Amino acid sequence: MKAGMTVNKYPNTIGVHALVWTGQVDADSLGAAARQSKAAGYDLLELSLHDIEEMDFAASRAAFAEAGVEIACSRGLAHDADVSSEDPAIVDRGVGLLVESIEATAAMGGTILTGALYSAFGKAAQPLSAKGRENIVSALRTVAEHAVGFGVTLGLEVCNRYETNVLNTARQAIALADDIDADNIMIHLDSYHMNIEEPNQVRPILEAGDRLGYIHIGENNRGFLGSGIIDFATHFWALQQIGYEGPITFESFSSAIVSKSLSNDLAIWRNLWDDNVQLATLARYFIDNGLVAAATAALR
Ligand code: MN
Predict the structure, then answer these.
(1) Is residue 140 part of a domain?
(2) Residue among 157, 163, 207, 219 flagged as catalytic
(3) Which residues constitute the domain of residue 18?
(4) Phi/psi of residue 177, each to 5°?
(5) Which residues in the chain show pLDDT less than 70?
(6) What per-residue confidence (pLDDT) applies to 138?
(7) pTM for this predicted structure
């Protein structure tokens, strides 16, 4: 090929979580976040649906289209609306929250709803019960069927033990996905959670293989990407090995940007950065470098 021609470096869409930019969910704030994402080199904005009742789907969708960014949505469930509960009324409210979230995702033009879709967010007081797991399987099977009609794929994000007692490892996610047995359910891994629960950044990615549908890339303290102790070279290598073509979304949180609901759920108590443009821009370069290095190494 001629020098100077554009090389298609990698197939992934690179995203950034909206809480890098704003804790508000009105259409103006989300539209500004979409424009800032684009300016920092991202093509996807991930929106938390924790404050879903305050969102204007149509106006937000128009703002995302104008900015030229795709969206993905994410959430966890709540203690009174949790499909992993043994209480049928609480399970039903969890299903309701998921149905509402699927419809919101589609209304804003998204095709991915991911996160802790299988349990309340926060430290559990006891292990998941057998009945609770049965309820997850049957609820998510129903919800996945509903999602098909909206063109939405559901992600099972594997989270650390302080956020859920359901899925802490990729192996658990594979087993749950097997039991739910729906074509529009995929596995979502997050380097930050993997760093707490998995043996390394490689094995869970290789195990998930072609069922991996979404990646969160974040540092061990959720601050500047590359400033901590996670071995991202091996993470990107593993993604390259399985031929991962899905989205890779940067997550980072600081007390500088506060969501009244999500910041507390995520235990964001400290200031890890003030300058979100610097944070997001550097992370975008870091992801680019990591993916290019992994792709180049594979040419050997
Ligand atoms: Mn995550």
Answers:
(1) yes
(2) 157
(3) 14-298
(4) -60, -40
(5) 1-7
(6) 98
(7) 0.96
